[in-house]
Design a protein that fits this description.
alpha+beta; 79 residues; 3 helices
Length: 79
């Protein structure tokens, strides 16, 4: 399975969208500073996940959630 996940950083007041096969492990990596892009926002909180059977579907959804329409969707969903 592949997962699209959304993290929230209270410190930065920003979210991060990604995809992985193990979102709990990936969250731990983000919170241990192993990801240079998210290191400054620690701690990160997992706020949303979606499950997909194929990597291509997960990547497509991740790309959508990073688009203008996708960001608006997340804004309305997570508020």
């Amino acid at each position: 399975m592949f997962y699209v996940y959304v993290l929230w950083s209270t410190k930065l007041q920003k979210r991060y969208v990604g995809y992985t096969t193990d979102y709990q492990k990936r969250l731990a990596e983000h919170n241990s500073g192993k990801s240079p892009f998210t290191k400054s926002g620690m701690p990160w909180e997992l706020v949303y996940t979606e499950e997909y059977t194929t990597e291509s579907d997960a990547r497509r959804r991740e790309k959508f959630l990073k688009s203008g329409v996708g960001r608006k969707f997340l804004d309305s969903l997570l508020k």
